[in-house]
């Protein structure tokens, strides 16, 4: 299908030096110039930034596609709760199309309205959460309805209308910045130099460089969508199985299963894909393993073949200490 082919084509252009990328390079420089000008307008006060009375931590990335923000947001929310904070979470709600915004996210919310990532984050953290294309509206709803003393923004590094106390940039440690060019010639939303201004840089997989903190994703079991039964991934080695991923970087999920010793048949779908039962009908009864983000959209038609593979973020111990240090420096609690 064309929705699947376009991301593959973009990846081929963006993550290597190609003729197509060179043809698009002038447009990339134009995009870069606009991005720089837009940020300058916010910094000079020509465009309005809303500042809230509680600290706001923005977690984002420079590139288009999955870098690992969602596992980090979940880790941050749990960590801050352990430290005595009362975090609330805001997001754009990618993949959702609600009639009205902002939307409160709870157990009765639907992925078609609030997005798959929001459903997953709210379920995994137990934190109050709201979504809106205008992040400031989601923040206001949270502060009106919940007793939050810190706000986490899932994505939004480029959403400069939202004032922030801390910025955390997440980098895909395998692909990093591709060819280093801005859209549409490369994967960058802003030039790489933007990292000089963020407070913390987290690298998902690969090797962390100086001034970067390592994050590794780990998960060694699967959860059945119909029964809730848990099995170690090793239990799926004995028979063929399917692997499904509708995320920004599906190869990372497929490689995770491969490293666990599974010989899965991979099926990649576009990011935030709205699955239907027929999409997961592969003409056999083999188990179907999928990411948690995909699983939240498949519960309504789940059968015994469907399994979610949860992952947890393992953070560099120095990251937690530096995070608390920066919060103390930048905002009086």
TrEMBL record:
At the top of the EC hierarchy, this enzyme's class is transferase
NCBIfam families attached here? lpxK
One of the protein's GO biological processes? lipid A biosynthetic process
Protein known as = Tetraacyldisaccharide 4'-kinase
Q: Which reaction(s) does the protein catalyse, per the Swiss-Prot or TrEMBL entry?
A: a lipid A disaccharide + ATP = a lipid IVA + ADP + H(+)
CDD domains in the record, alphabetically?
SIMIBI
> Under the cellular component aspect of Gene Ontology, which terms does the record hold?
plasma membrane
């Amino acid at each position: 299908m064309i929705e699947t082919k376009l991301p593959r084509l973009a990846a081929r252009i963006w993550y290597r030096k190609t003729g197509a990328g060179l043809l698009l390079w002038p447009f990339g420089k134009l995009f870069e110039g606009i991005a720089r000008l837009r940020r300058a307008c916010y910094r000079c006060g020509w465009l309005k930034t809303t500042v809230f009375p509680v600290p706001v931590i923005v977690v984002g990335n420079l590139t288009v596609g999955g870098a690992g923000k969602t596992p980090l947001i979940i880790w941050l929310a749990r960590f801050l709760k352990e430290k005595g904070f009362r975090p609330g979470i805001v997001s754009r709600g990618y993949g959702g199309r609600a009639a009205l915004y902002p939307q409160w996210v709870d157990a009765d919310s639907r992925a078609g309205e609030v997005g798959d990532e929001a459903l997953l984050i709210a379920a995994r953290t137990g934190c109050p959460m709201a979504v809106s294309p205008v992040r400031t509206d989601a923040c206001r709803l949270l502060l009106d309805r919940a007793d939050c003393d810190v706000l986490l923004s899932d994505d939004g590094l480029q959403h400069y209308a939202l004032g922030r106390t801390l910025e955390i940039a997440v980098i895909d440690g395998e692909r990093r910045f591709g060819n280093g060019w801005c859209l549409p010639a490369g994967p960058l939303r802003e030039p790489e130099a933007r990292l000089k201004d963020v407070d913390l840089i987290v690298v998902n997989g690969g090797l962390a460089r100086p001034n970067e903190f390592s994050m590794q994703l780990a998960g060694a079991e699967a959860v059945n969508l119909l029964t809730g039964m848990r099995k170690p991934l090793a239990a799926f080695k004995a028979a063929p199985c399917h692997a499904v991923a509708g995320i920004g970087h599906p190869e990372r999920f497929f490689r995770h299963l491969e490293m666990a010793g599974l010989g899965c048949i991979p099926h990649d779908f576009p990011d935030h894909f709205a699955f239907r039962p027929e999409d997961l009908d592969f003409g056999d009864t083999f188990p179907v393993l999928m990411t948690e983000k995909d699983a939240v959209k498949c519960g309504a038609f789940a059968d015994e073949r469907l399994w979610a593979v949860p992952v947890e973020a393992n953070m560099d111990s120095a990251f937690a200490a530096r995070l608390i240090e920066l919060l103390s420096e930048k905002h009086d609690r």
